[in-house]
Amino acid sequence: MGGAPTPAAPASSSSSSSAAAAGVASLSLSAPGPSRRTSRSRTPPRLYLAVDCGGTKAAAVVCDGSGRVRGRGFGGPANYTDVGLAAFLRSVDCAVPPAEQLDAARLSPPTGVAPADGSPAPFEAAWFGIAGVDSAADVTALSPHLAALLGLPYPSPRLIVANDTSLLAAPVTDPAHAHIRSGVVVIAGTGSIVMSFGQSDTGLLKTLGRVGGFGWLLGDEGSGYAVGRDAVRLVLDQADRERLLAEPGTSSCSPVRCGEEQVETAEHRLRDRILKHWGLSSTDDLLNAVYSNDTPPSFPAIGASAAPSRKHRLASLAPLVFHLAFAHTDATCLAILRRQARAIAEQVCEVLRPGPSSAAHLRADRSVLCCGGSLVGVARYRAVLEEELARLGVVFARVEYVGDPAMRGAAALAGVWEAKQTAP
C-alpha cells in the first residue's frame, strides 16, 4: 500500500506535496443551508457513508448520526491503480447502497447540499478509503467523479477521498477513549505498511508518518508474502545442508509424494506441507514453482491470465505456516512468525522516533495501535507482535483489530460530524 491521504488540516494551509498526497484537507462545516424537506413530528436521521476500496472488492457502510448501521453494499475490485477509473467507478456504484434500501423518502437532506438536479443527496458526508490513491493528483482526479456519483457538490468538505489505510485509524476518534488522540496503523495481509495518525482540533484525522508499504519487491515486512518467502527459503536452506551431509542416494522427496511409508517428522513437517500444498514431489521443484510463470498444480484454474502472481503464490503459504505454528507448536514456524513480527515492531518504532518538537511526534502510551489485515487478524500473531514491541520498550495504551474498516469509518465520520452539528 502507499501513503494514506487523510482529511486533516485546512486546505488553505501551506503544505508540501507529500502532505497534499496525504490528503490534507479541511473538514470544517459550512453553515447549514435550508432543508428541502422538514418534518414537524421528528427530524429524520442524517446519513454517513464510508467505502473501503480494496484489491478484491469495494465494501460500503452507511451509518446514521448515532453510528447505527443503516445499510451495506459490495462491489467488485476497487484498487484504483490496478483497475483504472472506469472499472473503479463501476465497483463503487455497485457498492453504495441504493436509496430504496436506505428508505430515502424518510431521510433528511444533508445540510447545505443542493444537487443540480434538485433532489437531495442522501448522505451528509462520505469517506472513501481507496487502495492505490497515493498522491494529491489521484485525489483530484477521483473527487469530482465520486461527488457526481453521490450527488454531492464539488468541491465540498463533505467528500473525503483518502488511501484505504486511513479508515483503519478510525479508533483514534473513538469518544469512549477521549484521552487518546493519536494512533499507529499496522496493516499485515498479503502486503504490509505502518502509518501514524493524529486527531486534529476539529476531531478529524491527520497523517503523521509512514514506514514501508513499498510492495513485495522492496518491502512488505511481516506480510503473508514475507512469511511464505521465509518458509520456502528455510526449506531450501535445509535441503542444501542435508545434501552436503547426505549419504549417496538420499532423496529430497516428501514421503507422501514419493510413496514412502514414512510418518511425517517434525524436522520435515514444513517441507512436506509446502510440497503437498503445491502438488510437488521434491524440493528440487520448489524454485521452479516460485519463479515460473506457470501456476503450481495445486492452484485451481481461475481463468486465463488470472493465475496467481508470484507474490500471491508465496503469500498462499502463510495460512499453512500459521497452522503449524499455533496448532502444532512447530518451533520452525513460530520462529518465522516471530521474526516477521519483529520486523513490523521495528517499523512501528520508526514512526515513534520523532521527538516532541516534530509535527509527527506521538507517544505509544497515549496512542492506540490499530491493526488491519488477515495476519494481524489472528489474535495469537497480534500477541506475538505486542511481545516484540514490548521487547523494544513500546507499549500502547490500547490495541484494536479493525475487522470492518468501512463500518468503523462510517461510525467515526458520523460521530465527528454530529458533534460539529450540535456544537454551539
From TrEMBL:
EC number(s) on file: 2.7.1.59
One Pfam family here: BcrAD_BadFG
GO molecular function: N-acetylglucosamine kinase activity
Enzyme class, broadest EC rank: transferase
Domain of life: Eukaryota
Region (Disordered): 23-43
InterPro entries in UniProt: ATPase_BadF, ATPase_NBD, Euk-type_GlcNAc_Kinase
Family: Belongs to the eukaryotic-type N-acetylglucosamine kinase family.
Protein name: N-acetyl-D-glucosamine kinase
Organism from which the protein derives: Tilletiopsis washingtonensis
